[in-house]
Design a protein that fits this description.
The protein is an alpha+beta fold. It has helices at about 30-35, 75-90, 175-185, 225-235, 290, 305-320, 320-340; strands spanning about 5-10, 15-20, 45-50, 60-65, 70, 100, 105-110, 115-120, 135-140, 140-150, 150-160, 165-170, 195-205, 205-215, 215-220, 240-245, 250-255, 260-265, 270-275. It has a 19-stranded mixed sheet that branches. It is elongated. The model is unreliable at about 280-285 (pLDDT under 50).
């Protein structure tokens, strides 16, 4: 059957969201995600997010597929869009929260007014094996000088349930992101690949950021990356525990509480709604009603022949049997005459 979807964006980081809380989505979604996220032949998005039945006592489970079909453990902009999606579907009021199961643990977003969502992102991972990275921790922060695409960069690693590499630069606009981003994403120091962030310190409470997202490439924003960047920059003595992070798509407010948990606040907005075409029958083949449905319709709620059958019945209601025979004979005579007489 045809399946509705919604597209949301958080600071320009855009996602296709589908409700599968009834447990009726297919298990293999990597290839469909890649096709749907294609900006020329699909809907176009940085990722596909599915709302699924919970498994560990939460309210709902979130699965994130990157634009290349790979699965992401967590996404800060994505979970804000996810919360707005659930609120719009269920009519949830301002102040509502959800315990969202993710591969990075249970994350709790809260719906605010004016299109904002705040998310308790949990504590950052700073133990190298949990990020994961081969960088060693010095003064709590794992970092080292790495050769990346022929350049030496001072790289810090922080985990937010997904890996992040943070590089401080004097001017983010001067960074050759298309060259350094993929090279650092796939650097051997990050065995699971990594998200890449170049940060410019504008003030102790204001940072400027450019993002190369693992599996998606350049993106306008990254919520988990903003959190990781604040942590790395604070531990480097470059900023306070709370700051505004300016990204190409807009600003996020990030606060690292004294209890070690990160709070992220930012927007999430509906872009448009749509419906995906009906899926083919099992085995990838469309139903041949003349043979498959001899003992009853195989798809009574979404019959592929319903429209044609309705047109046929309407035609039969308009003409008597004699008129139908006359119409058929006239049509046959016309076709025969045209064949011999030519144009």
């Amino acid at each position: 059957m045809a399946r509705p979807f919604r597209k949301y964006q958080g600071l320009g980081n855009d996602f296709i969201l589908i409700d599968g809380r009834r447990g009726d989505l297919p298990d293999q979604v990597g290839e469909p995600a890649r096709l749907l996220c294609d900006r020329r032949f699909g809907i176009g998005a940085d990722g596909l997010i599915l709302a699924l039945p919970p498994r560990q006592g939460g309210d709902v489970r979130m699965q994130i597929l990157n634009a290349d079909g790979s699965e992401a453990e967590m996404c800060g902009n994505g979970i804000r869009c996810f919360a707005r999606f659930l609120a719009d579907l269920d009519g949830a009021p301002v102040g509502s929260t959800w315990r969202v199961e993710t591969p990075a643990g249970v994350i709790v977003p809260q719906l605010l007014a004016d299109g904002l969502v705040t998310v308790d992102m949990g504590a950052p991972f700073l133990e190298p094996s949990t990020i994961p990275t081969t960088l060693t921790a010095a003064a709590q922060l794992p970092e080292a000088d790495l050769e990346v695409a022929g350049e030496w960069l001072r790289v810090a690693a922080v985990g937010m349930g997904n890996p992040h590499a943070v590089v401080t630069v004097a001017d983010v606009d001067a960074v050759p992101l298309e060259r350094l981003g993929p090279a650092l994403e796939q650097h051997p120091a990050f065995p699971a690949r990594t998200n890449v962030h170049f940060v410019q310190v504008l003030a102790p409470d204001r940072l400027r950021l450019r993002v190369w997202e693992r599996g998606a490439g350049p993106t306008l924003a990254c919520g988990t990356g903003a959190c990781a960047t604040l942590v790395a920059s604070h531990l480097r003595g470059q900023c306070e525990r709370a700051a505004t992070l300016e990204l190409p798509g807009g600003a996020l407010q990030i606060r690292w509480d004294d209890d070690g948990r990160l709070q992220m606040t930012g927007p999430a907005q509906l872009v448009f709604c749509g419906t995906l075409p009906a899926e083919p029958a099992a085995g990838g083949q469309a139903i041949d009603c003349a043979t498959a449905c001899t003992e009853g319709c195989q798809r009574p709620d979404d019959c592929p022949s319903a429209e044609a059958r309705a047109r046929t019945l309407a035609l039969l209601d308009r003409f008597s049997l004699d008129e139908m025979i006359s119409l058929a004979n006239d049509s046959l005579e016309d076709r025969t005459r045209r064949r011999f007489e030519g144009p």
